[in-house]
Amino acid sequence: MNLLLNTIEAMKNGGGDLTVASDVRDGQLHLAVSDTGIGLPDASPDEIFTPWFTTNSEGGGMGLAISRSIVESHGGRLWAVGKAERGATLNFTLPESATHLTTAV
């Protein structure tokens, strides 16, 4: 949910396209959320995952840091890739075994 909200926020002033794609490869679920928003910091795209980093005047800068922590705690990986033309893609993978929910009855 946080990835979707971030991509929507990145496009709020100029509109754009939001794309969500998923697939399973080599026992890994891969999800990609792409936008045509403001893009990533030029110096270090990974900076967006640093606590307190934000480009949003209303944001606290914790959402992506927490999202990465959650994904990594389940054996996955969360990263961002800038797009050449405009925008970014936020990707995460999870082991297929971590994607099954179990409920107690």
Description:
This protein has helices at residues 2-10, 63-73; strands spanning 18-25, 28-35, 77-82, 88-95. It has 105 residues and is an alpha+beta fold. It is globular and about 40 Å long. The model is unreliable at 101-105 (pLDDT under 50).
Summarize the SSE layout with pairings.
Blueprint: H1 2-10, E1 18-25, E2 28-35, H2 63-73, E3 77-82, E4 88-95
Antiparallel strand pairs: 1-2, 2-4, 3-4
Give the N-to-C terminal Cα separation. 27 Å
Identify the CATH homologous superfamily. Histidine kinase-like ATPase, C-terminal domain
DSSP summary, beta strand count: 4
Class per helix and strand makeup? alpha+beta
Order of helices and strands: HEEHEE
CATH fold call: Heat Shock Protein 90
Q: Examine the secondary-structure arrangement and name the CATH architecture.
A: 2-Layer Sandwich
Question: How many structural domains?
Answer: 1
Per CATH, the class reads Alpha Beta
Radius of gyration: 14 Å
Concise description?
This protein is an alpha+beta fold. The protein has helices spanning 2-10, 63-73; strands at residues 18-25, 28-35, 77-82, 88-95. The protein has a single domain (2-98), classed as Heat Shock Protein 90 (2-Layer Sandwich).
